[in-house]
Amino acid sequence: MKQTRHRKPVIAANWKMNKLIQEAVSFVAGFPKDPEPDQKIEVVICPPFTALQTVAEALRGTKIKLGAQNLYPKSQGAFTGEISPLMLKDVGCTYVILGHSERRHILGEQDTFINEKVQAALAHDLIPILCVGETLEERRQGQTETVCRSQLLGSLEGLDAEAVKKLVIAYEPVWAIGTGVNASAQDAEETIAYLRRVIAEKWGDEAAAAVRIQYGGSVKPQNIAEFMACANIDGALVGGASLESDSFYEIIQGARRGSERHEV
Ligand code: PGA
After folding, report:
1. How many domains does the chain have?
2. How far is ligand 1, taken at its centre, from the CA of residue 176, in Å?
3. C-alpha of residue 99 to centroid of ligand 1, in Å
4. How remote is the CA of residue 204 from the centroid of ligand 1, in Å?
5. For residue 158, how many other CB atoms are within 10 A of its CB?
6. Contact 85, 123 (CB under 8 A)
7. What is the CATH number of the domain that holds 49?
């Protein structure tokens, strides 16, 4: 049965630690100002901190939203080297990526700290894109659901259903990130449907129906439509393939095509 999607999908570019200011400027100059004219998909670009201001200016007057890749969970103070949610709002961010696997695995971030960040983002009216996902070893041991469940519940501790409805969650299997090996659309759909059930159990059906859950990990122009045709997948968090304006634009177009095939 074909059914119209009631959640607005989000396609977000995660540039990670890439692009000098001039490269960010060139990207935006070569990217359509109105990549999604009928506004059925939300488009977000998450540059590194140093390019936020420039990209914010370049995107002014467009519907493309700005996102950051991290924050420190305090408004201001003696936290040398950190960036606060207040500063992200000030520079024009709407979204912030939190709990990315590179921060969990390279920088040792734990769920309790990520939970503080989620709460701080929401308190400052920033929409968290909360990432969860299993490693290859965990997958091989059949722990995908247990790991994702525990990351999700740990990172969202203390939130009420209204807060949960505002979130974007990104299911990003660690073994699929930057490897060229994406999860199959069917596997991603199964895990994302499972996460939605976990949310329904804890926060109720309404929150589970409202929360947007993306897939991330080696998303490319060639595979996005397949993911978007799945009932529970509400967009993608895109790393490598978001660095070139042409391929990121092709992903948005593919997302639109896939969304039209969306079946329930
Ligand atoms: P990738 O990264 O698209 O390069 O696999 C995704 C991510 O880390 O968000």
Report:
1. 1
2. 8
3. 13
4. 30
5. 9
6. yes
7. 3.20.20.70
Q: What is the pLDDT of residues 16-42, one digit of tens each?
A: 999 999 999 999 999 999 999 888 999
Q: Which atom of ligand 1 is nearest to the CA of 217?
A: 5
Within 6 A (CB) of ligand 1 lie 14, 172, 177-178, 216-219, 237-241
Indicate the pairing of strand 95-98 with strand 235-238: unpaired
Note whether residue 23 is domain-resident: yes
CA distance 186 to 40: 23
Q: Is residue 1 predicted with pLDDT exceeding 90?
A: no
Q: Tell me if 203 is assigned to some domain.
A: yes
Mean pLDDT of 113-136: 98
In a domain, 5, yes or no: no
Looking at residue 32, its amino acid is P
Q: Tell me the pTM.
A: 0.96
pLDDT confidence of residue 214: 98
